[in-house]
Amino acid sequence: MATNSRRILSVGIAGLGAIGGVVAEALAAGIPGLALAAIAVRDRSKADSWLAPRRIVAEIVSLAALAERCDIVVECLPPARFAEIAEAVVDAGKILVPLSVGTLLAHPDLVERARETGARILVPTGALIGLDAVRAAAQGRISTVRMVTRKPPRGLEGAPYLVANDISLAGLTAPLKVFEGSAREGAKGFPANVNVAAALSLAGIGPDRTRLEIWADPGVERNMHRIEVDAESARFSMAIENIPSAENPRTGRITGLSVVALLRGLTAPLVVGT
After folding, report:
1. What pLDDT was estimated at residue 175?
2. 69 plus 141 within the same structural domain
3. pLDDT < 70 stretches in the chain
4. What's the pTM value of the predicted model, to 2 decimals?
5. pLDDT value for 93
6. Among 184, 188, 225, 250, which one carries the catalytic annotation?
7. Would residue 107 show up in a list of annotated catalytic residues for this protein?
8. What kind and span of H or E run contains 59?
9. Which of 87, 154, 167, 205 has the most crowded CB, counting CB atoms within 10 A?
10. Rg (CA), the chain
11. Can you list the alpha helix ranges (DSSP code H) found in the chain?
């Protein structure tokens, strides 16, 4: 009789905000083959008060310890702390699931280091649809990829690009295009807002050829993304309206769920999509 002796993979979460919380709850509820092992946070008492009523048990450790103790680390940190955990996970030869995908573009050396250490960097779909189609088209020739993002003004406030260019969104009464350029430039100017564009660029023709527009629109309540792809194999467009997270209006509710779906796919006997 065959027996299933597959080792349980330990999962660590760096950051317990809007996305990390969703992932922690899903792991605590049970994902076959995976177990929540540890969490790294800045405010331990706040984390304890969040975990206790949900009866979620996980050791709270430092970022460095997270990489040492866990097989998989889900990064849900502010972009400024991305390199700290990403480098540790890659150097340890573990699996990194980054949410700060825009910041990943600024660290292309991580991919080569992962190749050397045996680590894997698995970017979740996040707030986008259709990355499977883009990845498939990229096996051939893609001519253009264009993405238009519309967000409520509150979801863009404080972005470095807006601050540097003295663009105020206060009292906005009509849609305002606040950025047009490459996905790489957009990720640098809006690090907390356009991880979706960074993921799209990595799936397709790269961050310098992927074109991006960002609009602050007081008439919308959801984070909206439209993608247009022209390739030799197909021409297609996709649109999605994400409901912003109650904890963080910059993040769509579906983003955390996409991480859960990715984690389930690591151990599931059936995986649908590339």
Report:
1. 97
2. no
3. 1-5, 274
4. 0.90
5. 97
6. 225
7. no
8. strand 59-60
9. 205
10. 19
11. 18-29, 44-54, 63-69, 82-91, 101-104, 109-117, 131-137, 160-164, 183-189, 195-203, 253-267
